[in-house]
Specification:
- The chain has 215 residues and is an all-alpha fold.
- The chain has nine helices and no strands.
- Helix 2 crosses helix 7.
- It is globular and about 70 Å long.
- Keywords: Membrane, Transmembrane, Transmembrane helix.
- This is DUF624 domain-containing protein.
Length: 215
């Protein structure tokens, strides 16, 4: 193996190790359920820094982001959790019936759950990219990003659904690291989406500079 091949090998090993580590960190920090929002935001922050080469320690980046984003990310997650619970209850309720109204109600609930899932993917990416947002601003910006870059955001949604199925059948032992893999694939697309959406650059650059100082 030449010097170039050896460098590629160790780069690949480093990438896999960080993906696995971030996947485990997300799972562990999401166990209380109420912390899923902060954990998901921290995962996006750490992976964003790693993909862009701004991160010297993904573990430190993850826990720093977890602490910083805990209040806002938790509020947003609890709001979505309530909506998810209502939609799930509706879906279960309407699926027990056989009338046209029941079928329509179940369909609306299922579509609603898909839209909430779709929005959550975007909102955690937005929280990772921009500091100091309010709940309203974060949700509006997530929707703006999703519809401005509809094809790209749809690709992320498809990846998030398809990758777990593929890993389950091909590499079931890799399932605990799945969140890290999904985040890694998402952040191959998200930087271009933020450029395309043309949000104010000042906030993004300030956020990355602050994160570099915290490394």
């Amino acid at each position: 193996m030449g010097e170039k091949g050896e460098k590629l090998f160790w780069t690949g090993v480093d990438r896999v190790m960080n993906i696995v580590l971030l996947g485990f960190l997300w799972l562990i920090c999401s166990l209380p359920v109420i912390t899923i929002g902060a954990s998901s935001t921290a995962l996006n922050v750490a992976m964003s820094d790693y993909v862009r080469g701004d991160c010297y320690s993904v573990m430190k980046s993850f826990f720093t982001a977890f602490r910083q984003h805990w209040p806002l990310a938790t509020k947003i997650w609890l709001i979505h959790l309530i909506v998810i619970a209502v939609l799930l209850w509706d879906l279960i309720y309407y699926r027990t019936g056989e009338s046209t109204q029941d079928v329509l109600g179940a369909t609306v609930a299922a579509v609603g759950l898909m839209l909430v899932f779709f929005e959550l993917l975007m909102v955690y990416a937005v929280l990772a990219e921009f500091p100091g947002l309010t709940v309203k601003t974060a949700l509006v910006r997530a929707l703006d990003l999703a519809f401005t870059c509809f094809f790209e955001s749809l690709s992320i949604a498809v990846l998030t659904l398809a990758v777990p199925v593929a890993v389950f059948f091909l590499l079931p032992g890799f399932l605990p690291a799945l969140p890290g893999l999904i985040a890694y694939l998402d952040w191959q697309i998200l930087p271009k989406m933020f450029q395309k959406a043309k949000f104010k650059k000042g906030n993004r650059e300030q956020n990355r500079a602050v994160r570099k100082q915290n490394q």
